[in-house]
Specification:
The protein contains 1 helix and 10 strands; from the N terminus they run αββββββββββ. By secondary structure, the protein is mainly beta. The chain has a single domain, classed as Immunoglobulin-like. Strands 1, 2, 3, 4, 5, 6, 7, 8, 9 and 10 form a 10-stranded mixed beta sheet that branches. β2 and β3 form a beta hairpin. The radius of gyration is 20 Å and the shape is globular.
């Protein structure tokens, strides 16, 4: 007669599940330089638009740095836009603070899109920092476009 899983097997499975819940999982949307963490670069889907707005978060900043260049094969160029932006990619990331690039503030505008960006896709994105160097990241298309 089959009695199902033993008490020992159930206890082991429960302990493994509990340990898995306690250990933080690796997050595919985090990218690191020697000085900071970049979390979740994202944009909205685009239609026939010739630009896309890119948002992300910078934190765990141990040394003040500057984002000085953004490259991606899906666009011909990038610029800073939004509140207080000057056009050229030159974004200060202060030490010890969480800094956001967001649709409601300062953001990166990808110019001259080579094709529409589609929801649930990701595209290569290279971020270049004055002190932290280059990091290869993924640009996630997380939301439908507005309007």
């Amino acid at each position: 007669m089959n009695q199902g899983p033993s008490r020992r097997a159930l206890l082991q499975a429960s302990m493994a599940f509990g340990a898995a819940c306690l250990v933080p999982s690796a997050r595919a949307c985090e990218f690191f330089t020697t000085n900071l963490r970049v979390t979740h670069p994202w944009t909205r889907a685009t239609g026939k638009d010739s630009f896309a707005i890119v948002c992300m978060k910078f934190d765990e900043v141990t040394v003040a740095d500057r984002l000085i260049r953004v490259e991606t094969p899906v666009a011909t160029g990038a610029e800073m836009a939004g509140a207080g932006a000057s056009g050229k990619v030159n974004f200060l990331i202060p030490k010890g603070q969480e800094t956001l690039l967001s649709e409601k503030g300062t953001f990166i505008r990808l110019l001259g899109l080579r094709h529409p960006l589609e929801v649930a896709r990701s595209y290569p994105l290279t971020l270049v920092f004055a002190k932290g160097g280059r990091i290869d990241a993924d640009l996630s298309v997380d939301y439908e476009r507005l309007g």
